[in-house]
Amino acid sequence: MSSLQPVRGTHDLLPEESRRHRWVEEAAFAAARRYGFGEVMTPIFEFTEVFARTLGETSDVVTKEMYTFADRSGESITLRPEGTAGVARAFISGGLAQSLPLKLFYRGPMFRHERPQKGRLRQFHQVGVELLGVESPLADIEVIALAWRVLSELGLAGKVRLEINTLGDAESREAYRNTLTAYLSQFRLSLSEDSRNRLERNPLRILDSKDEGDKRIVEGAPVMTDSLTPAAREFFQTVTNGLGMLGIPFIINPRLVRGLDYYCHTAFEFTTTSLGAQGTVLAGGRYDELIATMGGPRTPGIGWAAGVERLSMLVDEPPAAVRPVAVIPMGDELAAMHVAERLRRAGQTVEMGFSGNMKKRMARANKANARFAVILGEEEAQRRAVTIRDLDGGSQEEVPLASLEEHLGRLL
Ligand code: ATP
Ligand code: MG
């Protein structure tokens, strides 16, 4: 065991990177708040059944990717591979049916045992939203508008493309399933083993297959659009009209299906060509039967999740961090530390090197992008004064030590 290596597919976020990461998360949450969403924090592990039942027994996540283990009391536990199932479980166990509609935002680590590559990790992070209790397509429009807002505010509007499709209602899907099975059965022997196994149980899944041979077969498959009931068609029409009205660009991709079993009606993805094979940055859809499937009261829902690492790779530099004040001692270092402490108490961000001569410390102050330096020279100390140097302009002035906070506060 190479116990001092990080586990394959995990990584440490050092300050530079975590700043980007937090910026993405915060931008998402700030936008979500403006749409009326509040944050929910569910545990990062659940009983295995929570995921096995909701994600569908034939899904890749359940069959291949879950981190499942028996805990010390023999319970089967799974580290959450996604956020929706846990939120739905919290809705049921918390008896939240009286509080509908519910608008929930979440963020945090997710775990999937996949083959690690760029933009694909075993511990990754998502931000996501769920809107529960609204049957109307207005909810679909609002949730997609929020996704578009988040991406726009991250400066990604020009880098992503919204693809949208409908999976219809139960009746539409039943009809489509039959048409699709009939088509795919002709190629039974050429399908990948995974897809052959799905042919009876969940043929829609095959449309999502990443196997090259499967993809070629899928190209000629009939599309969902032709099997829609009038009601499902109208639902989708309302969603696309709404997006048009809000000025959100999209393309309809009739082959888009989501990898998870509980979706109906609207399915959508924001994709990019800038991240190689890992092109999906944000994905979501409607899941009206999920909560009922889990044993709760039937409650419609729609939501999405976005990969924070993939977004972080796409965004430009986050807005600059707060520029610090550098405290530079030339004699008594403890006295300087006291000054630094006073300024921090007054709300300033303060850098103070632990060693070095004036020149070294000034270089460090510039490297930290400090706005001002507070220099504690020995002579000024006699006068109970300090020098404030403007590191952008180069000017400096001497101020009484007693009113340093006040002076700096005015300058900043
Ligand atoms: P993919 O097709 O890339 O495997 P997925 O369909 O499994 O994605 P979802 O379950 O819809 O992904 O998760 C939503 C988002 O979470 C993805 O669009 C992606 O940005 C991110 N994501 C999913 N899996 C990973 C991973 N292993 N590493 C990093 N980000 C991920
Ligand atoms: Mg996946």
Q: Layout of SSEs?
A:
Elements: H1 15-34, E1 38-39, E2 45-47, H2 48-55, H3 60-65, E3 67-70, E4 76-79, H4 84-93, E5 102-111, E6 123-132, H5 137-153, E7 161-166, H6 170-185, H7 193-201, H8 212-219, H9 230-245, E8 251-252, E9 264-271, E10 280-286, H10 290-293, E11 301-307, H11 308-314, E12 325-329, H12 333-345, E13 350-351, H13 358-367, E14 372-376, H14 378-382, E15 385-390, E16 396-400, H15 404-411
Parallel strand pairs: 1-5, 7-8, 12-13, 12-14
Antiparallel strand pairs: 2-4, 3-4, 5-6, 6-11, 7-9, 9-10, 10-11, 14-15, 15-16
Helix pairs in contact: 1-5, 1-11, 5-9
The structure holds adenosine-5'-triphosphate and magnesium ion (MG).
Adenosine-5'-triphosphate is lined by residues 82, 112, 114, 119-121, 124, 126, 259, 278, 280-283, 305-307, 309-310.
Describe this structure in words.
With 412 residues, the protein is an alpha+beta fold. The protein folds into two domains: 2-169 and 229-314, Bira Bifunctional Protein, Domain 2 (BirA Bifunctional Protein, domain 2); 325-411, Anticodon-binding domain (Rossmann fold, 3-Layer(aba) Sandwich), CATH 3.40.50. Helix content is 38%, strand content 21%. The protein has 15 helices and 16 strands. Strands 1-5-6-11-10-9-7-8 form an eight-stranded mixed beta sheet. It has a five-stranded mixed beta sheet with strand order 13-12-14-15-16, with helices on both faces. Strands 2-4-3 form a three-stranded antiparallel beta sheet. Strand 9 and strand 10 (280-286) form a beta hairpin. Helix 1 (15-34) runs antiparallel to helix 5. The longest helix is centred in the N-terminal third of the chain and has 20 residues, at 15-34. It is elongated and about 90 Å long. The mean pLDDT is 93. It binds adenosine-5'-triphosphate and magnesium ion. Adenosine-5'-triphosphate is lined by residues 82, 112, 114, 119-121, 124, 126, 259, 278, 280-283, 305-307, 309-310. It catalyses: tRNA(His) + L-histidine + ATP = L-histidyl-tRNA(His) + AMP + diphosphate + H(+). One of its GO terms (cellular component) is cytoplasm. Pfam families: HGTP_anticodon (PF03129), tRNA-synt_His (PF13393). GO terms for molecular function: ATP binding; histidine-tRNA ligase activity. This is Histidine--tRNA ligase.
